[in-house]
Amino acid sequence: MADERSPGAGRAQTLALQGVANAIVRVLLRVPVVSRGIGKRLVTLYVVGRRSGKRYTVPVAYTRHEGALLIGTPFGWGHNLRTGEPVEVRFQGRRRVADVVVHTDEDAVVRDYAVIARDNRNFAGFNKIGFAANGDPDPADLHLAWAAGARSFHLRLR
To answer: 69 CB contacts (<8 Å, ≥6 apart)?
Structure first.
């Protein structure tokens, strides 16, 4: 079967006005009462650029899985997280420290992206992951996400 995907298939892309949306979400995640609602799916990461020293404040979706917060991204800020180096997060309105385990190998990323996609259809759509008739994420789409640079992170809150 020929692959009829567009050249950007498998790649997540930022949305129009993503910066504005992120700024609004960051503020909402700081409000304790509001953060209890939207914080059931979102966490803010405080990431420092490894070379530039630039500070990134990134709201991202997470899935609770095996005692950790599971996050996936293909975007550059993810390259600044390292296994064994803690990261600051805002989780349910409170700023905390989390230990990080980074996965970049295909098997782990595909497995983690499947878990996140099953839990969060918005994540799946954003990352162009379709679903089979039985409800499982499409293995080809999961592979394309990994091939396009996706990585996954397990965060354990302290």
So the answer is: 43, 62, 63, 89, 91, 98, 154, 155, 156, 157
56: amino acid identity, one letter: Y
Adjacent-strand bridge partners of 56: 47
How open is the CA angle 155-12-78, to the nearest 5 degrees?
A: 35
Do the beta carbons of residue 41 and residue 126 sit within 8 Å? no
The answer to whether the Cα torsion of 142, 136, 5, 18 is positive or negative is negative
Q: What is the DSSP letter of 131?
A: B
Q: Are 151 and 74 in contact (CB under 8 A)?
A: yes
Q: Dump pLDDT digits (tens) for 104-150.
A: 999 999 999 999 999 999 999 989 999 999 999 999 999 999 999 99
Beta bridge partners of 57: 46
Radius of gyration of the chain (CA): 16
DSSP states of 34-78: HHHHHTTTEEEEEEE-TTT--EEEEEEE-EEETTEEEEEE-SGGG
Among left, alpha and beta (phi > 0; psi -120 to 50; other), residue 17 is left
